[in-house]
Amino acid sequence: MSKPLLDLTQLGMSFPTPNGDFVALKNVNLRIQEGEFISLIGHSGCGKSTVLNLVAGLHLPTSGGVIVDGREVAGPGPDRAVVFQNHSLLPWLTVYQNVELAVKQVAKGQHKAWIREQVNHYLELIQMSHAADKKPDEISGGMKQRVGIARALALQPKVLLMDEPFGALDALTRARLQDSLMEIQAELNNTVIMITHDVDEAVLLSDKIVMMTNGPAATVGEVLDINLPRPRNRVALADNPEYQKCRQAVLRFLYEKQSHTEPSTKDKKETQIASIATAKTA
Ligand SMILES: Nc1ncnc2c1ncn2[C@@H]1O[C@H](COP(=O)(O)OP(=O)(O)OP(=O)(O)O)[C@@H](O)[C@H]1O
Ligand SMILES: [Mg+2]
Fold first, then answer.
1. pLDDT by residue (tens digit) across 211-247?
2. Which domain holds residue 275?
3. For residue 19, is it within any domain?
4. Looking at ligand 1, which residue's alpha carbon is closest to its atom 1?
5. pTM attached to this predicted model
6. 59: how many CB neighbours lie within 10 A of its CB?
7. What residues does the ABC transporter domain cover (predicted)?
8. Which of 19, 25, 44, 49 for a ligand 1 pocket mutation test, highest count of atoms within 8 Å of Cβ?
9. What is the DSSP letter of 137?
10. Is 43 close to ligand 1, i.e. is its CB under 6 Å away?
11. C-alpha span between 53 and 66 (Å, rounded)
12. In this structure, is residue 255 part of a structural domain?
């Protein structure tokens, strides 16, 4: 197999707390090839965001390391762009200007015409050209999230990191954004790590689903290859036996192998996944 673009080796992370160190992650090993779409799934608090933050370079690991394209991660860098759950657009700039800011970071002496062309290209990609001159508070949550994605893509990162990018959106907007993300991925062949709590979202979008065990000392429990052909269509997949097999495997991991026993450890997000799971399996 070719050299992975991303290599997480024996990654460990402890946080200092008043009661001593809290071991969030232990021995996380993961290899990701260029162009792969990976979802990280696991119960709330297991350490998904910690993994993503370590890849982003926002935290440094207490053991092991992350290698991106042959270089060890020592801090944040333009080769890794992050999209958070709550879009973080600059409110005083228009949609156009928010994307332009990212384009200018990679422009390196390019002409104004090139910058304009790039901004327009990314706005078209997320179907937001019509709202280019609007400010963030004049557009919907789903639109803001799309602009956040455009901004991240405009940085032309080697790896796109997404922490529950669609978590705050309604189901219909979410479905539309998943479809546009699949189209963009087909066009640009980005390498993506996405955190999600939604089993269907993970199966629909991913080449591999990485399932994490519960913390403390969380690690990779199972990795599931999703061999469904692309382009994928959510309606057609609903009756696909391979799709059903994949979602059953993830549900089984989450609710049989890693289920929480004490109700006190359940938080809102977990209850949310549980209700999605029961609704779908009922
Ligand atoms: N700065 C910190 N100091 C101490 N503990 C931390 C810190 N950041 C995270 N943790 C702990 O590490 C564990 C993993 O947290 P993390 O945010 O990675 O979980 P998560 O899987 O992303 O959860 P969620 O699905 O709720 O977003 C949790 O127990 C959390 O309390
Ligand atoms: Mg998180």
1. 999 989 999 999 999 999 999 999 999 999 999 999 9
2. 6-76+198-281
3. yes
4. 15
5. 0.89
6. 17
7. 6-239
8. 49
9. G
10. no
11. 11
12. yes
